[in-house]
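$ run holo --ligand "adenosine-5'-triphosphate" --emit tokens
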Amino acid sequence: HDSTAAIELTELGKTYGHGDTARVAVRSSTLSLPWGQVLGLLGPNGAGKTTLIKMICGLVTPTAGTVRIGGWDLATERSRAVLQIGAVLEGSRNVYWPLSAWENLLYFGRLKGLRTAETRPRAERLLRDLDLWGRRHEQVGSYSRGMQQKVAVATALITDPPILLLDEPTLGLDVESARTFKDWVAHLARDEHKTILLTTHQLHDVAQELSDRIAVIRDGEIIADLPTGELLKKYAEDRWEIRLA
Ligand code: ATP
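-- output --
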């Protein structure tokens, strides 16, 4: 990659609705995430995390500002920009329950324009890495929540995009599933040099363990953006009154 940041947000904003019913979800947010880093986007429910992540993957159109992915402007060079992103959004188990994990991955590979011969070795690798290989031919509907979450992330990674967006990745997982999932995210960052943006409301768990940097969002505004160590220090010293869920 060149020196361009993986994700560059410039004065990004989103207001839902008009006039009396207008609701500002994100206001004038500026953020730059270098290639290979993990950024935790931390904030309480309703702070605007989901809206921000949806604007980055092109699902919500900003009402102000710009999103650049690897230097490509999402508004004007959309297909180049979105090709670099794999996203797993909160609550969206974007997988087909009647199909097996293996069939889901082949299906998503085809959907994203890969040839089957390209998809197969990638699917095998992902399923082995995720400990799903032994059960790859069972219906996803019969899996635990943690396993379904892994399949969802695997489908996002089938094209091997350099950037991964994860919205509340451990929400609703039991302790053990959350542990293996976090270990896997750490492996993607460390060994596969993925650039990862994840949202969470857990500072002393997901954000602290996985992130190089943490950005805090509150009432639609980014109120801090610091290396994780510094943020934790400041948080402890100043006892910031950040309501974290
Ligand atoms: P959560 O963790 O609950 O998902 P969040 O930090 O992701 O919260 P958002 O979902 O981005 O926050 O919501 C930010 C604000 O925008 C909230 O006040 C919400 O009610 C509002 N909002 C979100 N989506 C819409 C929409 N489609 N139409 C109108 N208002 C919306």
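-- notes --
The longest strand covers residues 23-33.
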